Amino acid sequence: MKHHPSMQIIFACGLFLSLGMLPCDASPVSATPEFQRLERDGIIIEYPPEWRDLAEKTHEWIVQNATGTEFTSPEDISQEKQEEILQFIAEQVAFEAPTEIMRKAWDKMREASEKFVSLFPTPKHIRLWQKEDILRYLEDGGEVPGCRYDREQRALFMEVQVESNKGGITEASPALGPIPFILTGHGEGLFEELQPKLQEMLDTSLPLSLVLPIHEAAQFSIIVDYHIMGPDRRWFCEGVSSYLTTAALGKCVSQEFAKFLIDKFNIDKYQDMTGQVNLVTWKPDRDSGERPRPEDEKLNEAHAAYATHEIMGLVNRHGEEIIPKIFKRLREIPLPEVSPDENRPPIRDMGTVYDVIEEVTGENFRARLLLYFEKEPPPPVVR
Q1: Fewest CB within 10 A of the end CB: N or C in the chain?
Q2: What confidence tens digit (pLDDT) does each residue in 171-194 have?
Q3: Model pTM score
Q4: Closest CA to 21 of 135, 178, 120
Q5: Cβ atoms within 10 Å of 171's Cβ, excluding its own
Q6: CB-based contacts of 333-338 (< 8 A; 24+ apart in sequence)
């Protein structure tokens, strides 16, 4: 994997859809609102003074449902399950068995995943917010550690950036503070509003720890085993890898979580960005040698969602065997020759990939992808 020096993953989780267009109090909020603290059994709950009963009930639920629950890392996955996942990926990219690069990617990303999972929120330290209170606090410039406030949308997003360098050392920023849970109610029904949010956090723990190793094992195989290393490779590598991640989770781990992950690639929330999405020229951030600017992050997310959407659409139209068929045909095509003095591996250009997709499916996929940038979403293909 020496040809690929670094990777970045930005995990963003919407804590709620919108804080709404609530009127802000004229008086400034210069400090964090007052919270009381319930600390017991290794669980910390911070809450407004009037929500003591809710804090007690929440503590009781967490003790019953989450005490002793840890966010399992891939090291805790049985060897048999790991082999099942890697074998599935291998067969999807037309190999009889997992390749050396798949195993190296899995092992390297396991370290990153352990760090990633350790940063992921757990219900062991939470802060209960009333919606109006946190809105006023954020509008006045207050900050929630590990979260980003979007003033235009009036929405709060949990956001952790994980970076792995050449040596496999993983860093993350920013540090998360108490996990905020925002409630809209004031009286009865507060726990009924909170409990599903706590449950969702527990339900997604194990599969989330597997997303990174699965995705990178698939992606590095596409890049290294198939020599698809050109600057315009990103939509294909990301789209196929994300599709294979959801498929592997669904087959080997959990259909429910596979659906949860698929929902993350829903393109509906990016409809207003369609004219900015150019999958054909979408380049990896690492190729520029710079971190993506904050204003580019959502556009990158849109590209990833559309790339995955297109690969999933390809599978829906032609069946699950279409991905192995494409890779099998790619393997039959000789790699371009490279002279010894070039000191680089041969690179399979995306023109070859487009030709193979058209040969196997009958679809001119490059033309299809360009329709997004031309503000004309691709039409459904009827075969």
Answers
A1: C
A2: 555 556 788 888 988 778 899 999
A3: 0.68
A4: 135
A5: 11
A6: 335/227
